[in-house]
Design a protein that fits this description.
28% strand, six-stranded mixed β-sheet, globular, mainly beta, Alpha-Beta Plaits, 221 residues, single chain, Ribosomal Protein L9, domain 1, three-stranded antiparallel β-sheet, 2 domains
Length: 221
């Protein structure tokens, strides 16, 4: 949903969306010959085989990095199931067949990897941009089964993430949600706080109404 820069190689092109990078360093640690912050350009796709570049790009937990094969190789395949992991003092990391919708259920984009803001301070909502660190956001990242609804009927493989106007992230579809302490639950519907004020994190408790949360305000939360 943001602007990205493309780095072209003979067998693969790598795109980088800087606003979504929170410096997890999976790329730098995985292939330093390709991803070197001290070089210009910092991404050199021909520094390794297209297969190795694609493998490491697919480990980027935020989706800031993506690739397109130029050699006829396969595109990135989504994981076989949808999963969300709540990071302690940080975002929700989601992988799978993810469809992001606006408040009117219009499709904004499809993703396989995202980091979703839950502190309310990101300037790139619904994505995390690392603002939780400067905002001093604190939450241990545990989950409870009482706030996740089971599937009422058999559905498709996609997990939709709807951005409710001035409110939470509404999940609809099959998913597994895990906490930073190993707690886990499976379900098909839930509402996740994205204002940072809920007393029942990572779930919404309606606090966005009391703080006049606006996703367009980077200081919210």
């Amino acid at each position: 949903m943001g602007r990205s820069r493309e780095y072209e190689g003979d067998g693969i092109a790598v795109s980088f969306e800087a606003e979504r990078c929170i410096h997890a360093a999976e790329c730098v640690g995985g292939l330093p010959a390709v991803f070197n912050p001290d070089s210009r350009p910092w991404i050199s796709p021909d520094g390794a085989s297209p297969e190795d570049v694609a493998r490491v790009v697919s480990r980027c937990p935020t989706g800031a990095l993506s690739f397109e094969r130029r050699d006829g190789g396969p595109a990135e395949a989504p994981p076989p199931s949808n999963s969300l992991r709540v990071g302690a003092d940080g975002p929700v990391f989601a992988t799978g067949r993810l469809v992001i919708l606006d408040a009117e259920r219009r499709e904004l984009c499809r993703e396989t990897r995202v980091a979703l803001c839950r502190c309310g301070a990101s300037g790139n909502k619904p994505y995390c941009d690392g603002a939780h660190k400067a905002a001093g956001f604190r939450d241990p990242g545990t989950v409870e089964t009482a706030h996740v609804k089971p599937a009422e009927r058999e559905g498709g493989p996609d997990l939709t993430i709807r951005l409710r106007a001035d409110g939470p992230l509404v999940l609809e579809g099959p998913f597994a949600l895990s906490g930073s302490d190993g707690s886990a639950v499976r379900g098909a519907a839930a509402a996740l706080c994205r204002c940072g004020a809920s007393r029942n994190k990572p779930f919404c408790d309606g606090s966005h109404r009391h703080i006049d949360f606006s996703p367009d305000d980077p200081s919210a939360g």
